[in-house]
Amino acid sequence: MAKLQPVRGTKDLLPAEARRHRHVEDTARRITELYGFGEVVTPIFEFTEVFKRTLGDTSDIVTKEMYTFADRGGESLTLRPEGTAGVARAFISGGLQQQLPLKLFYRGPMFRYERPQKGRQRQFHQVGVELLGVESPQADIETIAMGARFLDALGLKDRVTLELNSLGDAESRAAYRDTLVDFLNAHRDALSEDSRERLERNPLRVLDSKDEGDKRVVADAPLLSDSLNEASRAFFDQLTRGLDAVGVSYRLNPRLVRGLDYYCHTAFEFTTTDLGAQGTVLAGGRYDGLIGQMGGPATPGIGWAAGVERLSLMVEELVEPPRPVAVIPVGEAAQATALTLTQQLRDRGVAADLGFSGNLKKRMKRANGLHARLALMLGEDELAKGVATLRDLDSGEQEEIVLDRIVAHLCEKD
Ligand code: ATP
Ligand code: MG
């Protein structure tokens, strides 16, 4: 039994860390609900085809990162590497076009075979949203503003920057593609092997390369913004004016492209310098071609996804568990009363801990370890008098309380 270890790139979330994750997810759910988004839960695996069709055969995810396997019936299945494909599939297979516009929120684990680093795992978690059925930039404004609001609610407003770009419509991208291919061909020798291949199959992806040599070439590449047609420019203008109007600040980044085939017009990322190389915490864009490309009715869409691990690393210091009342029976005879009182407190919604064993000293130590706010001490002599001692563990003050009044007293204190 050599392998009693987590698989490389996976992690156990122990309570403190799981709590931070939940805080990030709960905040996302709360904020997206304010904007009228409802949660959708799609399966964690799909037919491999679902991802191949949406992410494109040339994307990094499809070529290198997917966990694909044949099930016992011989079907090729893939653990979802991202959330949009499954939501789009659910939209098509559920026949949801009558319900447009649709505002959907999702969360949960994603799987990508990549090199694990801080903020980069093989099983990681995302929260994300998709807004389907709205062609106008109003949807982009609302979706991006909601992302900003979410990060703000996590207390990260001053630690992230919104970077924004337009990829234009299909016509603009085709025009740009020609210009870019000419440029990249002229610098072919300086490109990495991966990028030379991308150049043949999907040249825009070269702009997204993380290879240092590629980055140097790309730094001088022509800009997409110079190839935008009138309509694409107007769309982007409306978006930036809308963001100005709702007070969301951004930095134009003409080099920003998204790694997936189906994006058009709006591309954006919220980035931070606090996490080293893994600086993107929330990223998204518009994908008007996606659902049509999958075989569904042509339906515009925009969405984003945020990495829960990365956000959780940033909010680390903020999330505290509820501080319990430590119930401390001293001596055998007090056990039964302690058990009943603890149960009554929990019934009333008060967090309570009943150490399982030990003398007063040991139990006080446990109470401090749990960061308990109060200790309720039940000594035999006190019980005989029908009272217990309540000690405030912050101030050290203590008072005697009649047993029958304890639960009510502690509930009032909440
Ligand atoms: P990166 O450039 O960091 O690889 P990406 O473009 O592959 O990101 P997206 O597919 O846009 O990422 O996913 C959205 C977000 O999910 C990212 O911004 C990041 O916060 C998070 N994320 C992506 N891959 C991972 C991973 N392997 N581990 C942890 N978080 C991740
Ligand atoms: Mg990636």
Question: What does this entry show, briefly?
Answer:
Helix content is 38%, strand content 21%. The protein has 15 helices and 16 strands.
- Strand residue content: 15-25%
Strand order of the biggest β-sheet: 1-5-6-11-10-9-7-8
Helix content: 25-40%
At the first level of CATH, the class of the largest domain is: Alpha Beta
User: Into how many domains do the coordinates divide?
Assistant: 2
Global mean pLDDT = 92
Name the CATH superfamily assignment of the largest domain.
Answer: Bira Bifunctional Protein, Domain 2
Largest sheet data: 8 strands, mixed
Question: How many β-strands, per DSSP?
Answer: 16
Bound molecules: adenosine-5'-triphosphate, magnesium ion
Overall SS class: alpha+beta
Would you give the CATH topology of the largest domain?
BirA Bifunctional Protein, domain 2
Q: From the 3D coordinates, which CATH architecture of the largest domain would you assign? A: 2-Layer Sandwich
Radius of gyration: 27 Å
SS element count, helices: 15
